[in-house]
Amino acid sequence: MRRHIRNTDLVALLDGELAPPGAERVQHHLAGCEPCSQRLERLRGEMAAVDAELDKLAPAAHQAPDAARALREFRAHRELEDNPYGRISLMDKLRMNKNVQRAVSGAAVVMVLAVLFALEPVRAAAHELLSIFRVENFVVLPVSTGQMENLANVERTLGRDYFPGTYDMITEPGEAQHPESLAAASEAAGFAVRTPATQGPADEYIVRGEMAMRLIPDREMMQEIFTVAGLSPDLVPEGIDGQPFELTVPRSVVQVWGTEEEALVVMQMPSPSVEFPAGVDEDELAVAMLQLLGYSAEDAQKLSASINWTTTIVLPLPQEQVSFEEVPVDGASGFVLVGEAPAEATDAPNTAVLWQKDGMIYLVSGIQDSAALLEIANSLQ
Amino acid sequence: MHKNESEVPTTLPDEQLLRRFIDGDVESFEQLFSRHYDRVYGILFRLVGTRQQAEDLAQEVFLRLYQRPPAQAVNVTGWLYRVATNTGYNALRADKRRRQREQASADDEAAGPSVETVFDGRAERSRVRAVLAKLPRRSAQLLLLRHTGSSYKELAEAVGIAPGSVGTLLSRAAEAFRTAYRNVERRTE
User: Is the pTM above the cut of 0.80?
Assistant: First the structure.
């Protein structure tokens, strides 16, 4: 046979991956073909050289895998996940952990925003807030996929323009400023901006203006949402009609290193605040909103009882898209959020560390893994 | 030592375990975990170089299998090794401050070999990882999975290519590795 052997077959031969008939044919050819034999030797040398290099990366004896321990750790983690209150237990932790409670107090995002945020007009109005947090789906608490679909269906049924009340901007954030330096950013923001010691000067500084908006709910229109979502309209508190909620998001500073998807972003801003109208029972409202977010009446009661909604910032996380973990960071307690990329995705998932300290909210996000991001977060000075 | 708690041996193939798991049998998942953990950890360790990080990433890989298992028809090994190499490769490339990690790696190893060996080996390993980070993702995946004992069938499934082209792509990947290695070597000299 005069046709030369292709590299693919030569490599497969070296790796013992050529089925017997093919292997015999190749061997036979090699016996009488000097160029192919030489190519085989060259490939053998090349593969061996690569293997010799990769050998260096193998774990040493004391770094060997411990599958049994790993499985125990996995089980412990999974129990938390499987527990019907597993995801809610984060909230229990908030209640239990004094430090966390202190960390989050002063910052307040009201439950009522959850339902409003689920609707397009408010999503647009609240875009500033969303972009500050860089969390695209800003709803309160983990929301199951099924319930996300349910809420999307509510929006389809009532129309994208449906808004259960009125809202107006009190303070427009205006155009963002782009100071040249850290010092200039601090001056523009009106507070001392901290920067990670692990990084050099940022490539970009962005200072966003303060934003304040007033939301005035219409009870009947809110009830319509509950009805379409398959819930009792009586859940909506009677006292809510026409009561103004004021949301204030202070000036924020964003430092950026790198570009686009690979950028490392550090955001700092004084805690936002919400003014809760006196005539509204926040527990009653919270129970209603939690049910709208897919929690059972019983879970909603338990959760509501455990949280002071007027002083708690609640992280809004579609549970299929973002996973989270409580971590110590910067001398406070915070959360690592990991965006879930599809298993076959080629991009690194976006990771973020979010915490609150001394009245400031910090967010560090990038494509680094959580350990690397935490290191950056812990180096803020 | 880490084997002495291993689960009851099973002869069920991966695909059947996966199907049982999807039907709600958690024990089947744990068998998959025990069966593939060492390989997944080995792949990740080679890419990230510290025990702690490799263990954390391995948990992530299996958590993904647990939370969102692939369709039943999918080859479990190929899926797992793809997710593992992707996860590890992302970590490797995303880390622009590898020096510090290598320092951590040295700390990790301090319990083992002598200081001199650690020191010499550290630079070597750092160089090999730098080379892997420079390769096209698929090339790095192929070389690493082959090196850790994957069959061509597994390789093909893991990176989504026809089994017949594995050899060609491997030889190209090896060549790219050698070229990148020489470049990195030149720069570090």
Answer: no
